[in-house]
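Action item from last week, closing it out:
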Amino acid sequence: SMNLYTTSRSAFDYDQHICCDLTLPIDRQLFPDSVEGIIHCAAVVDEKSDDYAIVDRNLRSAFHLSHLVNQLNPKSLINFSSIAVYGSKHREDIVSEESPLAPTSNYGLAKALIENLLNLNINPTTSVSHLRLGYILSKEIPEKYFIHRIAQLIKNREMVSLINPDQTVFSFIDVDDIAQVCIKLLQNPTAGAWNLVNDETPTLRDVFYWIRSNTNPDFDLTHEEVHTESLYQLTYSNSEIKRKLNMDGFSSTAST
């Protein structure tokens, strides 16, 4: 069994929560004497912003974290990265870990820089694992997610515009699968970077039909357009993480 602590800027009223701000130097004395592993999932997420603040805040957090890790000397650090590190301009049919990093958003740039910062700045006694996550699915979908926004439009019977509904594909990953991968990496620390996405790659139309079936099956207020200049057809290989951790696969069924 694992003795689990959580951290955030906000204070919570239970013993195993540590209140700290990663954008500032971190007091090692706040943490237990012995730490076996750390999962870094804090991030400012905005794939549309061209403001340097996205890079600055995420990179400062990783910098201060790296100093804490070197003081705590855990066996494992698991960093939540993103498929955004690859950008949207690849010409391969399937993007693998061998594909070059070419972020096309400031968020993707921040994630790519963080991977390099942690690899270069953390003592070799700690195994650093980077999980390049797809869009995360969970039972509670944050309001900023497009899935939540579409669901609200359907509930309110407002028009839904589908841009490139059959050409746009998505790479999701279920939060339960992320948890299972983290447990395996904590039990068997392994350095590397891996794509972590579901086996399925549904189209925008598939996702819309799924949301509609769970929200209002009779909804029919849709408008469709095809914008050939903004197609998003990338799919990502997850074969390396399955091989490394001896896992059969990942499916979006856990949260549905």
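Closing note: The first strand starts at residue 6 and ends at 8.
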